[in-house]
Fold:
Amino acid sequence: MSTSDLYLPPGAKRSSSLIKTHDLDEAQALITRVYIPHTLRSRDGYPLDFKLNFLQSHQLTLGHLNYGADAELLVPAMATNYHINLTLKGSTAVSQAGSTGSTHALRRGVAFGPLHDFTVRWSPEAIQYAIKLPRATLEGHLAALLNHPVDDVIDFSLIFDLSSPAGQNLLSAVNFLRTELSRPGGLSASPMARGQLESFVMTQVLFAVPHRFSGELTTPTKPANRSRIRDVIDHIDSHPEADLTMAGLAQRAGVSARAMQKGFVAAVGLPPMAYVRTVRLERVRAELISTAGTRSITDIASHWGFTHLSRFSAYYKKQFGESPSDTVRKTLS
Structure:
């Protein structure tokens, strides 16, 4: 669903992708449409100054949200989704399944599991990223990282540290995803690149929010053996256009993500996703040479998942010692 598909009740305003309203019922209808049916109330009786800017990617919903009032949400169990709030400004008081806590700007976030009702009370100045992650997708991603089934709900801690290195990595990943999905010609135009970043965001969630598998994700492990790594290298070389993610490559090798990472570095001197990038850059170079003057550099780079052109150019020059335009010019001369 794009913002243009969203039903706006009378009185609600939209400027570009930003939705605004002062009416409580309208705000409730909007959040119900994007996330889940719920009860919304103003604890002090004042009108809202509600603003929502949301984006839906293939595997998740990402909203940048504030209510501008002392607002409280009573939310039923989401059942098929996890919900994560990253507090950017202000604070919230939260509760779920008998546990209570609070979030604070850039210091603490909250992760709600899918099986129980929860409440969120927003301070008037609170601004948050509100992320909805499908349960099957996130649990499948964790299973791929661990190389074994995850047969039950992920028991996330209600409150987690946003100021830790893992928390900062999660914030950075979400910031980048939001920027790219909003940017014309960004990740939304490249399923290959979008899938990689969605996968990266899910990985950062699993590292930032404590749960019973956290130790297994971070415990040192032996590298995958070279025959398994060789099989993955052959797959990347043969199918660089595929949706290649760290979790998917580890699953193909039949090892955990950490074993995959260590084995790859030992075998080729690069992490798996860096190797994927080098192979795709080689395909870009081959197309620049074979189609010189007939296709734009931007089109070819985007086709291979490089949507940020300045970053693409830097990678290209580092790998080949010349810019993409130099390659085209030499071919045509």
